[in-house]
Amino acid sequence: MQKKNQKNIVYILAPAKTATGGPEALHQLANSLRENFNFTIKMVYLPQTVINPVHDNYKDYSINFTNIIEDNENNLLISPEHFEYLEELNKYKKIKKIIWWLSIDNYLNSRFRKKNSKQLRSILKIPLAIIKFFNNVTFFYFGILTEQDYVKLIYKYIKIKNLKELTSIDFHYAQSNYALTFLKKEFKNISYLSDYQRKIFLKTPNTETVKKENLICYYPFKSNDFVKKIISYNKNLKFIPIDNFSTDEIIKLLKKTKIYIDFGFHPGKDRIPREAVLMRNCIITNRKGSALNNVDIPINDEFKFYEKYSNLEKINYKILSIFQNYESEFLKFQNYYLKILDEEKLFNKQVRENFINIFEKT
User: Fold this and answer.
1) The domain over range 199-341 is classified in CATH as 3.40.50.2000
2) Residues 65, 54 contacting (CB under 8 angstroms)
3) Interval 123-175: pLDDT, tens
4) How does residue 244 score in pLDDT terms, banded at 50, 70 and 90?
5) Selection from 45, 98, 96, 93 nearest residue 75 by Cα
6) Which of 63, 239, 251, 349 is most exposed by smallest CB count within 10 Å?
7) CB-count burial class (<10 Å; 0-12, 13-18, 19+) for 174
């Protein structure tokens, strides 16, 4: 353990009054740094105009917040990858800077929106509209191409390490293997730093006698046109959208469902599939973003599908197989389940390894 050094202040940028996976991870990091190093930790919430910016979900962390950042070499400023936060990060010249890449897609999409006018974005997306049209005509023969996929194609041949907002960064941390693989091609000063599941899910007992039903749940805002096709193809099955649910309502639902489907773009190591597995759901995903590898979403290939019309029958067969053989099918997720239970311990180990000499390395 590093001895307490009053000169070291760690500032962490986070969205004000917001409760999603990203802000949760940022507060987990603040808490871990405080417990492992005794650094002075201060959250900096954006926008700074929000009164009482701490969301109720994070008040138990009891992390101090401020609107003033002391810009000197003894301090450290940590930012998520969203472009507007990186703009804030680059206002400071002396402080050491870290980007924690909680996603890749969110950075590229936020940059694309901020750096291009609405009119220019519309022009740039004309090829996407044409591809989508022919894709519908061919019943997704080429798979789904989303706006997130398209923006990644636009940036594919751009050296992002040379982009202005990334040239003065001292360290990069990647929350997912997906992000790590992408960024290692651009940066040498990068390490892996994941996160862990919310304690309310970890503490929720799975030994309760809750009868599992032949139900499938999904998040509408993480879905695309292909999910609609899956639902339409399986009209006799019950799909429940998780829409504006409280955490307690989500837990109650996941305890009785057997399947969680996620055909989103998986910008990082997603929390929602982990929540579902903890509540003993089988997972069915596409093969995009972090779901493409078997580190971030370590499930058997038989549960991952390309978004093609020809796969609808295969997905239907897998759903029915889970319903009929739920216990044996869920056994295939046991390693994933155990991995999730061990995440907090691993996270704290990674924090200690990554930050032990952080103030001496630059």
Assistant:
1) yes
2) yes
3) 888 888 887 777 776 667 667 778 888 898 889 888 999 999 999 999 999 99
4) confident
5) 96
6) 349
7) buried
pTM listed for this prediction? 0.91
- Name the nearest CA neighbour of 254 among 320, 200, 305, 301: 200
Say if residues 106 and 267 touch (Cβ distance below 8 Å). Answer: yes
Give yes or no for a contact between 287 and 310, defined as CB atoms under 8 angstroms apart: no
Containing H/E element for 218?
strand 215-218
Q: Do domains 9-110+149-196+343-355 and 199-341 have the same CATH topology?
A: yes
Residue whose token pair is 């996407």: 128
Helices (H), 186-266: 199-203, 225-233, 247-256
> Helix, strand, or coil here: 300?
coil
Report the number of secondary-structure helices (H) and strands (E) in the chain. Answer: 15, 10
Cα–Cα nearest to 321, from 290, 360, 280, 284? 284
- When the candidates are 3.10.580.10, 3.40.50.2300, 3.40.50.2000, 3.20.20.60, the CATH number that belongs to 9-110+149-196+343-355 is 3.40.50.2000
Is residue 278 within 8 Å of residue 337, measured between CB atoms? yes
Q: Where are the domains of the chain?
A: 9-110+149-196+343-355, 199-341
For 139, counting Cβ atoms within 10 Å of its Cβ (0-12 exposed, 13-18 middle, 19+ buried), the class is exposed
Residue 85 identity? Y
Residue whose C-alpha is closest to residue 268's, from 324, 222, 316, 326: 222
How would you classify residue 219: left for phi > 0, otherwise alpha for psi between -120 and 50, otherwise beta? beta
